[in-house]
Amino acid sequence: MDLRLRISAKRVAILVLPIWLAACGGGGERGISFTDDQGVGNQPFPTNYRGELLAFFRTYLNNPVGVRDAVMAEPVQRMVGGRLRYVSCLRFTPKDFEGRYGAPQERAVSYVDARLDRVIENPAEACAGANFVAFPELEKMPR
Question: Which pLDDT score, from 0 to 100, does residue 91 have?
Fold first, then answer.
């Protein structure tokens, strides 16, 4: 085989492979999913949500020690991004890099298959009407 022909075949493969892979993974509204969840059925309740929240916020917060005014709402089913998810809402006041308290923050956490999936940083709609209760475990977190 001619050297130029081999180089051309490699270039074609490099250009065509991403298009071919996109065609396999895409396809209408279906997309790629690692679960059977289509977003419309009931999700299982996240029974370990408190422990998962604490483990996550230990790494999410720059300084997890000394959080004040921590409250949370038990997970309820809400539509998030067009999919039915359990969502838990939190309000808390963390310390900044210099150890000073800033403004209170509100976050929503969504769950997929009973596991923490993502944090929603502007949760006005997701947390509308949430019933908050004290979350002292978040205030007592160690580093």
Answer: 96
DSSP readout, 30-69? ----SSS--SSSPPPP-TTHHHHHHHHHHHHSS--TT-EE
Could you say which DSSP state residue 5 is in?
H
Backbone torsions φ then ψ of 68, nearest 5 degrees? -115, 160
Residue pair 47/53 in contact (Cβ under 8 Å)? The answer is: no
Residue 142 has pLDDT above 90, yes or no: no
pLDDT at 4 over 80: no
Other beta carbons within 10 Å of 127: 21
Residue 116: which residues within 8 A CB-CB, separation 6 or more? Answer: 46, 49, 52, 53, 56, 109
Q: What is the pTM of this model?
A: 0.69
pLDDT band with cut points at 50, 70 and 90 for residue 89: very high
Beta bridge partners of 89: 73, 108
